[in-house]
Design a protein that fits this description.
With about 80 residues, the protein is of the alpha+beta class. The chain is about 20% helix and about 10% strand. It contains three helices and two strands, in the order E-H-E-H-H. Strands 1-2 form a two-stranded parallel ribbon. Strand 1, helix 1 and strand 2 form a beta-alpha-beta unit.
């Protein structure tokens, strides 16, 4: 993913799914993070399952995915990475 892929957004939300006791390191502290801040894009890291986290996984699991309608040739990319 490059800057041109998200330069018109106002927020970039990254979801860090934990595997066992380890959790992924997201964009904080990287060049990418600084590029976001300079572009006035708000970076937000979400870690489902952590205490106090309001992430509603059921909402996203039941939401309609618009990818097939927007990019039919890429609909095969709908496999889950979790």
């Amino acid at each position: 993913m490059g800057h041109a892929d998200f330069y018109n957004t106002r927020a970039l939300v990254e979801i860090g799914w934990a595997k066992g006791k380890s959790r992924p390191t997201l964009s904080y502290g990287t060049h990418f993070f600084h590029d976001l801040v300079e572009s006035q894009i708000y970076p937000l890291a979400v870690f489902p399952g952590e205490p106090g986290n309001p992430f509603n996984e059921a909402f996203f699991d039941s939401a309609l995915n618009a990818l097939p309608a927007l990019l039919p040739d890429d609909a095969a990319l709908l496999t889950s990475s979790r």
